[in-house]
Design a protein that fits this description.
Elements lengths: L1 H11 L11 H4 L12 E8 L11 H9 L7 E8 L6 H21 L7 E4 L5 H10 L2 E4 L9 H10 L2 H6 L12 E4 L12 E3 L4 H13 L2 H17 L2 H16 L6 E5 L6 E5 L8 H10 L3 E6 L16 H12 L3 E6 L4 H7 L7 E4 L4 E3 L7 E2 L8 H15 L4 E4 L4 E4 L5 H18 L5 E6 L2 E6 L4
Parallel strand pairs: 1-2, 1-4, 2-3, 4-5, 5-6, 9-10, 10-11
Antiparallel strand pairs: 7-8, 11-12, 12-13, 14-15, 15-17, 16-17
Family: In the N-terminal section; belongs to the glycosyltransferase 20 family.
InterPro entries: Glyco_trans_20, HAD-like_sf, HAD_sf, Trehalose_PPase
GO molecular function: glycosyltransferase activity; trehalose-phosphatase activity
Length: about 450
């Protein structure tokens, strides 16, 4: 067993060394921990860092023994606490809490010859870490906040081994490999490991139940999860991602050589746009000339963001805007429509003085050609039961996103986050969009995102 742990380092780097080249000081490392023999071993990595502090480092272990006493004497948790990169009071508090909790667990649930927790707080050599990967039936990474953590990937590769290792140790290569992962939903690699048990590290009970579930999972399922993970990790290596990034860059830049690039805006609003080489800036003189030559003109005007600047707080049209609209409507050659996402009552109140102005409310769901005509429904929809499903979801995100609001229309529901924190609001909007698409998958509606909005409205058949 312990020889296999050491050999794996060379197996995974494809540099095989025979037994005679190993040094006894390294092999003796594995003999220091007899409590691991014939036990189900949990491997857990942590950092003595306040920003990654684990609230479930050991409390979940206590819950596991309290809720499932059958595991006492059968399971060992190897807690590898990587040394902190700095020194400070916060770091010392984390270390002190770790030591005291580990000692309390061993005193409460341990017995002569058995320690439920093996705490390693010294720097590990690479081969030593590989050894622990090999003997661990399950690996846990429950960081509260972390980036692209590679520990789960290393664990999967080590549990797989290779043909040379099996041949050297006289292991049956036909025996399927297996592994189990319990990972925090807050680490970057979590979405890539579909077979892992994901947990919220702040929920101690959930972490304890995940540990128990990882132990009682049937062997066949452990094998399937391992095969799925190994297939992904072994195919998505550095070469794969490098090639993928290059392909994306080539695809994005494929037509750049024949396009013309223009810089628009200033400061934080500056951006570069690429245009077709045949693109020509629209000349005001050309517009005026074409306007005068035409006999029939259809003029469609947007309101919010076009006739009214986004930065304006009071969206009510001023007399100057009303005057321009009336001037266009007085020309008998013109048919003028104002298209807006606002409801028909608001548009009726705002533009009551424009008698010949056509209005399209709620993005064309309601339409009125003149002030003295009734509103017409362009898309006949009689069922709005989907609102009872969508509105509670939007309310949930409104409560957790400061500055967001819900706008209820006759034909749609709109979630606004213009006044929320830009980064957090955008993140919440993407999550809300996915949530609504999931719960409304069987309803005849479309879920769209726009400028600081997420909107649900009836689906229009083509």
């Amino acid at each position: 067993m312990f020889l296999a742990l050491y050999l794996l380092v060379y197996a995974k780097t494809y540099i095989y060394k025979p037994w005679t080249t190993f040094s006894w000081p390294r092999i003796s490392f594995f003999l220091k921990f007899p409590p691991l023999w014939n036990k189900e071993t949990y491997l857990r990595f942590s950092f003595s860092c306040p920003t990654r502090k684990r609230p479930t480092k050991f409390p979940s272990r206590i819950h596991l023994y309290q809720q499932h006493p059958d595991w006492r004497g059968k399971v060992v948790l190897v807690q590898i606490a990587n040394p902190a990169r700095g020194r400070g009071r916060d770091v010392q508090e984390v270390q002190s809490e770790t030591y005291s909790t580990a000692k309390r667990i061993n005193e409460t649930f341990g017995r002569p010859g058995y320690s439920p927790v093996v705490l390693i707080d010294t720097p590990l050599q690479f081969y030593e870490r590989i050894a622990y990967y090999m003997i661990a039936e399950c690996c846990m990474v429950t960081a509260v906040r972390d980036g692209m953590n590679l520990i789960p990937y290393e664990y999967i590769i080590c549990r797989q081994g290779n043909e040379k290792l099996d041949e050297t140790l006289q292991l049956d290569p036909s025996v399927p490999k297996k592994s189990m992962l319990v990972v925090s939903e807050f680490i970057g690699c979590s979405p890539s490991l579909s077979g892992a048990i994901r947990v919220n590290p702040w929920n101690i009970d959930a972490v304890a139940e995940a540990m128990d579930h990882a132990l009682v999972v049937p062997e066949s399922e452990k094998q399937l999860r391992h095969e799925k993970h190994y297939r992904y990790v072994s195919t998505h290596d550095v070469g794969y991602w490098a090639q993928s990034f290059l392909q994306d860059l080539e695809r994005a830049c494929r037509d750049h050589l024949r396009r013309r690039c223009w810089g628009i805006g200033f400061g934080l609003g500056f951006r570069v746009i690429s245009l077709d080489p045949n693109f020509r800036k629209l000349s005001l003189d050309h517009i005026v000339s074409a306007y005068k030559r035409s006999r029939n003109r259809a003029i469609l005007l947007d309101y919010d963001g076009t006739m009214m600047a986004p930065s304006v707080t009071d969206k009510t049209p001023n007399p100057e805007v009303i005057g321009f609209l009336n001037s266009l409507c007085r020309d008998p050659k013109n048919v003028v429509f104002l298209v807006s996402g606002r409801d028909k009552k608001t548009l009726t109140d705002w533009f009551s003085s424009c008698e010949k102005l056509g209005l399209a409310a709620e993005h064309g769901y309601f339409m009125r050609q003149r002030h003295d005509e009734d509103w017409e429904t362009c898309v006949p929809v009689t069922e709005f039961d989907w609102k009872q499903t969508a509105e509670p979801v939007m309310k949930l995100y409104t409560e957790t996103t400061d500055g967001s609001t819900i706008e209820t229309k006759e034909s749609a529901l709109v979630w606004h986050y213009q006044y929320a924190d830009p980064d957090f609001g955008s993140c919440q909007a993407k999550e809300l969009l996915d949530h609504l698409e999931s719960v409304l998958a069987n309803d005849p509606v479309s879920v769209k995102s726009g400028q600081h909005i997420v909107e649900v409205k009836p689906q229009v058949s083509q």
